[in-house]
Amino acid sequence: MNKTAIETIQEAITTWKGKRNFTFENKQVHPYKSPIVDGEYVLRFTNSINDFFCNEQTIQISLTSRPFHTGTLSEKPLSESPKGDKHRLDKFLEEFDNDFYTEVENRLNDCIETLTTSDPLFF
């Protein structure tokens, strides 16, 4: 396994987990061995939040990404650059975050009149 490639992927995931618009976001990564390419992985990402309330009912918001396929980890990588996955992953995670925050905004806009939260950033 390409050590540089795995370290850059881990760096991208750590950075992503550290970026939050809300205190209680629950960002997770779910790795699976690739069923197609030996030595590669398929990553799925989730983000969820449940600290907003509409009419005193919890608004549960969760989003799961489409699959992200690595291409630099196997002994015969699909990309010559060990940082190729990191560059693709950075963009992938930025788009995923944008989709999640759009979903949060849409869900909260439906309840703007009675919206409350347990997030200390909004007190």
Structure characterization notes:
This protein has 123 residues and is of the alpha+beta class. The protein has one domain. It is built from two helices and five strands, in the order αββββαβ. Strands 1, 2, 3, 4 and 5 form a five-stranded antiparallel β-sheet that branches. A hairpin with a 2-residue loop joins strand 2 (41-54) and strand 3 (57-64). The longest helix has 26 residues, at 84-109. The radius of gyration is 17 Å and the shape is elongated. The termini are far apart. The relative contact order is 0.22. The model has no long low-confidence stretch (mean pLDDT 91).
Supply the key terms.
alpha+beta; 123 residues
* Helix and strand pattern: HEEEEHE
**Beta-strand percentage range:** 25-35%
Number of discrete helical segments: 2
Radius of gyration: 17 Å
Global outline: elongated
The N- to C-terminal Cα distance equals 47 Å
DSSP strand count: 5
What's the number of domains? 1
User: How many strands, what sense, and barrel or not for the largest sheet?
Assistant: 5 strands, antiparallel
Classification by helices and strands? alpha+beta
On the 0-100 scale, what is the average pLDDT? 91
Helix content: 25-40%
Low-confidence runs:
none
Which SSEs are present, and which pair or pack?
Blueprint: H1 3-18, E1 26-33, E2 41-54, E3 57-64, E4 68-69, H2 84-109, E5 115-117
Antiparallel strand pairs: 1-2, 2-3, 2-4, 2-5
Helix pairs in contact: 1-2
